[in-house]
Amino acid sequence: MSVVPFLAPVESRFDLQGAQPWLASYGYTSIAVSVVYLILTFVGRRWMSSRPAFNLRRPLVMWNAGLAVFSILGFLTVSPFLAKTLVENGFSSSVCSDGLHGRSAPRQLWNLLLLLSKNVELGDTAFIVLRKTPLNFLHWYHHITVYTYGAWFSRTSGEVAITFWMGATNYFVHSLMYTYYTVKAAGVRVPRWVAQLITIIQLAQFVVGVVTILTAFLQKSSGVDCDASYDLLYAGLAIYVSYFILFLNFFYQRYLKKKVE
User: Fold this and answer.
1) Are 233 and 216 in contact (CB under 8 A)?
2) Taking 60 as the threshold, does the pLDDT of residue 99 lie above it?
3) What is the pLDDT confidence band of residue 102, given thresholds at 50, 70 and 90?
4) Tell me, what's a Pfam family for it (predicted)?
5) What's the pLDDT tens digit per position in 71-87?
6) What is the 3-state secondary structure (H, E, C) of the chain?
7) What distance in Å separates the CA atoms of residue 92 and residue 217, rounded to the nearest whole number?
8) Which of 152, 168, 170, 172 has the greatest CB tally within 10 Å of its CB?
9) 211: closest CA among 53, 94, 84, 56?
């Protein structure tokens, strides 16, 4: 049964193979889009430097609420397949054997929608630029790397087991993150510990990512058939480790540094 009833007809008929011709060039497209994104971001900041900040409270609430709802629906759709495999076949199989997940059209569709949503999430930066709020390296680095990584390996994203770990954890974390952003943008006073907890959960996501990738490496090196390619694993490991370091530094600078001093 579909989590989103009105999407049920689309989900049931979705065929990832039909999207392959378009996905074949998606990686190159993501690089071009990322270059344009960076140019617009820094040119936009320079343009806004001599102008008053825009009051975008209502659009920001709607933007974050839309991404929160999307992430929640995605998590509710993708996670049951992952949970079923974990219970029935164990962790190692959930990382390496996509066939055990079952080639579900809804699951493949929502994994593809997650990839496409990274285009939309680039719009987060527009609100930062137009509202003249602080923009740090972590923000734009995270956006373009997760976008280009997903796009580059998008041709196999619906057929490689480990990508469903990546998808489920990303949907889960973004469900919390964008819900928090929505409430905060609406003017509700949110306790400081909530933001701290979300960052800790993000760090846990990266640890899970590293563990799943290392498990896939071990499986492949021991001769066990694993459907993840080495280039996907190496790139994913580098990205997850960089995220962990950057987010850990952010957590320290934001919440711990003053206490230590």
Assistant:
1) yes
2) no
3) low
4) ELO
5) 999 999 888 888 888 88
6) CCCCHHHHHHHHHCCHHHHHHHHCCHHHHHHHHHHHHHHHHHHHHHHHCCCCCCCCHHHHHHHHHHHHHHHHHHHHHHHHHHHHHHHHHCHHHHHHCHHHCCCCHHHHHHHHHHHHHHHHHCCHHHHHHHHCCCCCHHHHHHHHHHHHHHHHCHHHCCCCCHHHHHHHHHHHHHHHHHHHHHHHHCCCCCCHHHHHHHHHHHHHHHHHHHHHHHHHHHHHHCCCCCCCCHHHHHHHHHHHHHHHHHHHHHHHHHHHHHHHC
7) 11
8) 168
9) 94
Q: Please state the domain count of the chain.
A: 1
Domain, as residue range, for 38 = 5-260
Angle at 221 (CA atoms; ends 218, 223), nearest 5 degrees: 110
Positions marked catalytic = 142
Q: Which tens digits make up the pLDDT trace of 124-175? A: 999 999 999 999 999 999 999 999 999 988 765 556 888 889 999 999 999 9
